[in-house]
Amino acid sequence: MTRLAGVIGDPIGHSRSPRLHGHWLRRYGIDGHYVPLHVRADDLARTLDLLPRLGFAGVNVTIPHKEAVFHLAETATDRARAVGAANTLSFSDGAIHADNTDGAGFVANLRQGAPGWAADRPALVLGAGGAARGIVAALLDLGVPEITLANRTEARAQTLAAGFDDRVGVVPWDRAEARLGGRGLLVNTTSLGMAGQPRMALSLDALPHDALVTDIVYTPLRTALLTRAELRGNPTVDGLGMLLHQAVPGFAAWFGVTPEVDDDLRRAVLS
Fold first, then answer.
1. Each residue's pLDDT tens digit, 85-114
2. Annotated catalytic, 66?
3. 239, 216 in Cβ contact below 8 A?
4. CA distance linking residue 208 with residue 210, whole number of Å
5. Half-sphere exposure of 96 (CA within 13 A, CB side)
6. Which of 16, 21, 23, 66 is catalytic?
7. Which alpha helices (H) appear in the chain, and where do they start and end?
8. DSSP secondary-structure letter at 43?
9. Which residue in 124, 111, 114 sits closest to 183, CA to CA?
């Protein structure tokens, strides 16, 4: 029987997950389809109830549903529970199982794109959504000594920080630039800079020139933030690798094959 999976979000047109999973389906000769599904918040619960009945084995989850789907799931992995958000759902025996592979994908991307980076200095993380939760947890596990969150809605950042220990603090969005000094890592987890969204206006003047800058946005691949960082000499890592690595567990669960992340996959997703 043809196996089905997909990705849900609002918007969804930017997602390259269909290219990614489509490449793996062809590579491994699997009879399956992976489709993008534009799902609004008001339709989320009904959609998750309907998809298993239509034969879907699971879905990836993107902006803005990662926290909501976690609360709709019956079971969850430890890493999903640790951050209260999910980016990967599997449907089995009438139940929704939630996982969060964002942190693992983020770390794998850093190790691949900046193998010399050391987690020995503070980090500034922009954003406080589901992806930020997974990334903060992963950075703490790596040993980053201090993480400062800045979000346009400060209350969301405060809520996120409250789920961790005192290594995680919050700064108002309009004071984020002043906290760049001494940082070893700057991470953008917001949609700012994505195609069709407002640009990231953060000044990098106070950021050390050896600090690593990474943006989880991958459409465009080289965001304005990364371009400005490169022009001033900072090392950068784009967001595509995070997308590739975080997709592996879901594909394995839905299609029964653990896929490989390699240059052929990157070229296929970028084509």
1. 899 999 999 899 999 999 999 999 999 999
2. yes
3. yes
4. 5
5. 25
6. 66
7. 17-27, 44-50, 66-72, 78-83, 102-113, 130-142, 154-162, 224-231, 240-246, 248-255, 263-270
8. G
9. 124
Domains 3-101+247-270 and 103-239 share a fold: yes
Contact by Cβ (8 Å): 40, 12: no
* 3-class state of residue 84 by DSSP: coil
The domain limits of the chain are 3-101+247-270, 103-239
103-239 folds as: Rossmann fold (3.40.50)
* CA–CA distance, 160 with 147 (Å, rounded to integer): 12
Domain 3-101+247-270 superfamily per CATH? Leucine Dehydrogenase, chain A, domain 1 (3.40.50.10860)
**How big is the chain, counted in residues?**
271
What is the rounded CA–CA span in Å between residue 41 and residue 10? 8
Nearest to 146 by CA among 189, 198, 182, 102: 182
Q: How many CA atoms lie within 13 A of 12 on its CB side?
A: 18
| pLDDT tops 80 at residue 27 | yes
> How many whole angstroms separate alpha carbon 175 and alpha carbon 93?
48
- Name the pLDDT band for 239 (thresholds 50, 70, 90): very high
Pairing of strands 168-170, 123-126: unpaired
**pLDDT band, residue 130 (cuts 50/70/90):** confident
Cα–Cα distance measured from residue 162 to residue 80, given in angstroms and rounded to the nearest whole number: 16
Q: Are 237 and 211 in contact (CB under 8 A)?
A: no
Helix (H) or strand (E) holding 32: strand 32-38
Token reading at 158: 């405060």
Cβ atoms of 237 and 114 closer than 8 Å:
yes
